[in-house]
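So, can you check what follows?
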Amino acid sequence: DVPDRATEHDPVRADVPGRPTDERPADGGPGRPAVPGTARADALDAQRRRFLQLDAILDAAARSERDLCAPEVSRIILANIEWLRGCGWRVWAATLMPSHAHLVLSNAAGRDGELTGDLARFMAYTARLINKARGASGGFWQREPFDHWCRDGDAWLRSVSYTLNNPVKAGLCR
């Protein structure tokens, strides 16, 4: 649902690329293409397939009472993204989908290790406000957000592009 570590947080959060390194393992290493047939390439392929399956499920999900695009809900979420900025998080991209959100974040203040805690506070606070606005109670966000750490510029660019194009791909806009 909402942001999480290097996320495309389901919510999703992605981090800013790290510095490239000259040390590259034989299988390509972080930020480099995996060599076909290696354990790393197989693991990346499996991860990609699982992600695409989850993505298709989320895009096909019918709107529900937890519709993040409902005006009273989206106003609360978007207004409180400013709180994340106040914690030092730079918001590179953000998208609200009916069933989940994507955030691409980085922290110039060296607080990357605080992302999980900051997102938990953000999610708890916005859930209280949303429940109050809807006259509801209980959990609002999913318990275990999906996150992805971007290790290089290409991964970061893919995360930003995915985040911005997800509503188009899902047929919500052009």
